[in-house]
Amino acid sequence: MAEVAFDYPAIADRVKEAIRQGLGPDNVIVETNESYKGRIHLRVISPKLNGRATEERNQLLMDILHAELGADAQAVSLLMGYGTDDLF
């Protein structure tokens, strides 16, 4: 099976926009880093993730990405979602 390479700058912008729209643009921090072959490491901090278990946070974020990006959501190879309560 051939390895897929992604256009990091283009996909990263789409990922950031999808998360901001899905969680609301206020008080959300979205950071991306490039990984192997353009894959994305994604960190999201939002009060909308407060009180949720890690699996629930990740599922919510992946649901947003799949809805907005379709198959390109597979470019996200590492996902870390935090509520603002986790920072203190």
Overview features:
88 residues; 2 helices; single chain; three-stranded mixed beta sheet; GMP Synthetase, Chain A, domain 3; 3 strands; alpha+beta
Q: What features would you describe in this structure?
A:
- This protein is of the alpha+beta class and 88 residues long.
- It has one domain (8-87): 2-Layer Sandwich (GMP Synthetase, Chain A, domain 3).
- 36% of the residues lie in helices and 22% in strands.
- The chain has 2 helices and 3 strands.
- It has helices spanning 8-23, 54-69; strands at 29-34, 40-45, 76-82.
- It has a 3-stranded mixed beta sheet.
- Strand 2, helix 2 and strand 3 form a beta-alpha-beta unit.
- Helix 1 packs across helix 2.
- The longest helix is centred in the N-terminal third of the chain and has 16 residues, at 8-23.
- The protein is elongated, with a radius of gyration of 13 Å.
- The model has no long low-confidence stretch (mean pLDDT 94).
Class derived from helix and strand content: alpha+beta
How much of the sequence lies in strands comes to 15-25%
The CATH architecture classification is 2-Layer Sandwich
Shape: elongated
| Strand arrangement in the largest pleated sheet | 1-2-3
- Rg, rounded, reads 13 Å
Biggest beta sheet summary: 3 strands, mixed
Quickly count the domains.
1
- Indicate the CATH topology: GMP Synthetase, Chain A, domain 3
The helix fraction, in percent, is: 25-40%
Mean pLDDT: 94
Q: Kindly, what is the distance between the CA atoms of the first and last residues, rounded to a whole number of angstroms?
A: 44 Å
| Tally of helical segments | 2
